[in-house]
What we know:
Chain A is of the alpha+beta class. Chain A has helices spanning 12-25, 81-97, 121-124, 128-144, 205-218, 236-250, 253-258, 322-327, 360-365, 418-423, and strands at residues 30-46, 49-67, 70-76, 148-164, 169-184, 190-197, 228-234, 283-285, 307-311, 314-315, 350-353, 369-380, 388-401, 404-408, 412-417, 425-428, 432-434, 447-450, 453-463. Chain A has ten helices and 19 strands. In chain A, the strands form three sheets. Chain A has a six-stranded antiparallel sheet. In chain A, strands 10-9-8-11-18-17 form a six-stranded mixed sheet, covered by helices on one side. In chain A, a hairpin with a 2-residue loop joins β13 (388-401) and β14 (404-408). The longest helix of chain A is centred in the first third of the chain and has 17 residues, at 81-97. Chain A starts with 11 loop residues before the first helix and ends with a strand. Chain B is of the alpha+beta class. Chain B is built from ten helices and 23 strands. Chain B has helices at 7-17, 73-91, 123-137, 202-208, 210-226, 241-253, 258-261, 331-336, 371-376, 427-432, and strands at residues 22-38, 41-59, 62-68, 107-111, 142-160, 165-181, 189-198, 235-239, 291-294, 315-320, 323-324, 346-347, 356-357, 362-364, 380-392, 398-410, 413-418, 421-426, 434-437, 442-451, 456-464, 467-472, 474-476. In chain B, the strands form five sheets. In chain B, strands 8, 15, 16, 17, 18, 19, 22 and 23 form an eight-stranded mixed sheet that branches. In chain B, strands 1, 2, 3, 4, 5, 6 and 7 form a seven-stranded mixed sheet that branches. In chain B, strands 11-10-9-14 form a four-stranded antiparallel sheet. At the A-B interface, β1, β2, β3, α2 and α4 of A face β2, β3, α2, α3 and β15 of B.
Amino acid sequence: MSIAQRTNVLGREAMLGPLESALRDAKGGEVELWAHRRRSAITRYAKNEVHQNALADETFVQARVVVRNAVGVASANALESGDLRTLIGAARAAAELSVPNADWPGLAAPARNGEPRSFDQRTADVDPAYQVAQIQTIAGLARARGMRTAGTHQVELVEEAVANTNGVAQYAPLTWAYLRALVLTDQGGSGWGEDLASSISAHDPVAIAGRAIEKAARDHDRAQLAPGDYEAVFEELAMAEVLRFMSLTGLTGQTLKDGRSFMAGDAGRPRFGEPVTGPQFSLWEDALDPRTLALPFDPEGTPKRRIGLVEHGVARGVVHDRQSAKWFGTESTGHAADPRRYAPGGHAGNLTMGDGTATREQLIGAVTRGVLITRFHYTNTPDPKRATMTGTTRDGTFLIENGEITRALANVRYRMSALDLFRGLELMGPARLVRDWWSSNGMGSIVCLCPAVKVARATITGSSPI
Amino acid sequence: MPLGDGRLADLVHVGAKRGATYADARAVERENETISVRDGGVEAVTRASDRGIGFRVIHKGAWGFAATDRTGEDAMKALVDEAFRRADAAASTRTKPVTLAPIAPQTGEYRTKLARDPFSVPARERIALLLEADGALNGPNARSRRASVAAYRTRKRLVTSEGTDVSQEIVESGAGVAVTAAKAGAKPAQRYDSRLTRQAGWEFIEELDLVARARRYRDDAEATLDAPLAPERPTTLVFAPEFLALLVHESCGHPTEADRVLEYEVAFAGTTFMWPKDRGTLTYGSPHVSMTADATVPGGMGTFGWDDDGVPAMRTKLVDKGKFVGYLTSRETAAGLGLPVAIGSARAEGWQHFPIVRMVNVSLDPGTQSYAQLLSGVGDGLLLEAPASYSLDDKRQNFHFSTQAARVIRNGQLEGYVRGVAFQSLTPAFWGRCDGVADDWELHGFLSCAKGEPLQLMRVGHGAAHARFRDVPIEVTA
């Protein structure tokens, strides 16, 4: 291959070919092979300087073998034919040690899926000098204001292939690019800006720096906010945090079966068709939306479908993988999760929230006395049944009075059920592609298209020290 | 590639020849076997393995790192080229070169001491144990049950341009039991522990007595379903070692990671409230509170022969009778803070990760009174055994914890259950309420402390004994 043609992408034949070849030799039972290749290039910076610059290229391959409904799983990190034969053998041995699963749903059947929409060749082939240059743009702008910066430029090329003995054969590539900037001042202030997209071309380091600098510049002489209920503006990152816990605690077949989901009524009956929150709130799962980042099929090879979750406050459905679909007597919606990160039972990872047209200024202007929240830190759910989230704010928490930002606040702790929060949804801006704090570094894989919002009530339970 | 292969030394040699002032190559092979049982049936029998090489250089004063699972000469050449490309690009931003605190070159081997290799235990035996535990979890209101056992083996070798060449084989065993109980008109109650891990063989699983533990979890969940709400008022709390292990982890282990001081983790994990100027003077907690970082604790999940900088396992005090005194450091962060190497805590999850500052075993030092004596000092309080959710701010000060189960303590005796208990505090205020630590110290292990970009999950250990905290404001949620 010439220098002009050199690319980091392995391609369909290199990823799917070995799987199909290995399956031809597999003897007996149902066999599925899932390969996930990740080439991750991350440049981390702090105090305006790069302190880590790393590239890792790894290929994860999982084999599932089912013998008389007993399931065995094995994984390794090689696509060589000998290694795949060994892998299938290990999974078969595991299956023979296991006992039959009475609820085994069978492997997926072949089906057409949508075209991959989250791939950019130039992003797949990004070089380290480019990544550093973007950071230097941000650092230069912050330095000019007497500020310092920290963050990451992160690019991932993902290639996935799934094949099974039913004839499933799927392949798709995906790229995502993340440019993040935390700007810090010597007065203890901080502000955040970021862009997330499938292409590095979508990043605007000047705009990112501008957003972060503007917040950091305002963030001085912090006051402490007394605990209580306040009107609030949640920016998009803050909204993604709330949606994360709705997803993990309430939007999957497993949580519905367990009775843990807010979608579960008494005696395990789903609450589909019942109001669960305010009528302004709608949420759906749609990996095929061209604005999101997604592969068009799941690790079982099932095409992903658009699923309405909550429609104008009314519960409509949850997502399923093949196992949870069997429990509920329905079909998989294409939402099997990465088994290294999530238990079986479905995973809603491409959320879209109904949005509006309000500008940031209009959202802030609608607040008499309340809080502007940029993003959250280390959130968790003390009450999963009510999709409650708690977390402290960071990097841009401000008091709004009579429609204007009047002063900076010490980070506050928020604790509230999402269902109660969304009952007070009053205004929404246009949706933007963002990730919650956990997903932003890989502890989770949820991507949200969600708006900034103004709500009537957000419960603040405490503050960090100034 | 066999770990004994000379290619690690070749990589380091090439790195030095190309002008790196430091180079290291780390080969890692990992394998694990997990068996899980769910609701009376075998959920999965899983075998996983991976292997690869990570290569680091300091060139032109900056780090470059590349990692691959591919073998072959082309792959090795690409690995070296990429590491240097990354270092060169990073160097353009540096005003000061990366420097490493000095250590003497290390050679040797470390192996976990085992009585019974967990990989050698027949699957039939593991499944039988899990099915018995699953049966013990099954109370009248159990909605879902899960039990699992796992065996882990990591083999790694580190070769550096300074002459270090160390090999390690670490074996760990783990188990988990979990039950969710639900019934009409009551909020579901969960009782679980996913942190039963030890650097040890199958003998650790036998010590755990999973069946007895499962019965206890079943009873906790069933009782919590019907329990009244706790009264919402400042309460004397006694924490079990399992709960304190997490409190120590979140509120001491993390803020004493030196890379937080240097703002390396500020964009994601945050910084700290424990700054270098505070060493020796900041009051972290009451005089009953001392915490130690120790990479030599037998059986610790954070125990090893050498960290991933090649620093031999050591121990150091982090908090001494309530005063903040020390940090967890890597060679780079020790140099960055002007400190000698007092503990090696540069650790990478796998071959594909750049080593960063992680906990080793960070423990609350034991006290001198028995657990019974500690309880006898409680007229009206609560015993909190296991955490549910936890959340901390970006400096590790404001925190919020909720609980899985809570028992009433009255006049030193354990009585019935209450529910809905959570608490929010600031770290020094919380540890300042500690007025007693028992002597029943036990070691707990975490498989997946999350940190770094991209994410790394690290095994860490935490020891603690029961401890008592006076008048902690609690929140109660129906």
